[in-house]
Design brief:
Strands 1-3-2 form a three-stranded antiparallel β-sheet. 60% of the residues lie in helices and 7% in strands. The protein has a single domain, classed as Multidrug-efflux Transporter Regulator, Chain: A, Domain 2, CATH 1.10.1660. It is flat and about 60 Å long. The protein has four helices and three strands. Keywords: DNA-binding.
Length: 98
């Protein structure tokens, strides 16, 4: 019996993310090892990414080229930017109720 794909997969392969981001696959593996981007390995060891990984990689590239940050500093800046996003969302939700 033939199987038909009803929806696009919600994960992207290492090669797909590398092609879309313009980065070498080994650099992507390094980013995963440094926890700069989330990737999950399946039982065969192949890396898979969420579709949002491409945007995250573009953000990393902007920080690297625009501010000349090293990878450790990029991780710190990404953590701070995520915290700012959370705090801004809390402020916006608080303003709606006052």
């Amino acid at each position: 019996m033939a199987e038909y794909l009803l929806a696009h997969p919600v994960r992207l392969s290492l090669d797909t993310v590398a092609a879309r981001s313009g980065l070498h696959p080994e650099l992507l593996r390094r980013f995963v090892a440094l926890s700069l981007v989330d990737g999950t390995a399946d039982s065969s060891g192949r890396l898979w990414f969420a579709p949002s990984a491409v945007a995250a990689l573009a953000r990393i590239q902007r920080l690297r080229t625009g501010l000349c940050l090293n990878y450790a500093a990029i991780g710190l800046v990404l953590d701070l930017l995520d915290r700012i996003d959370v705090l801004e969302a809390q402020v916006r939700s608080h303003r709606r109720w006052t």
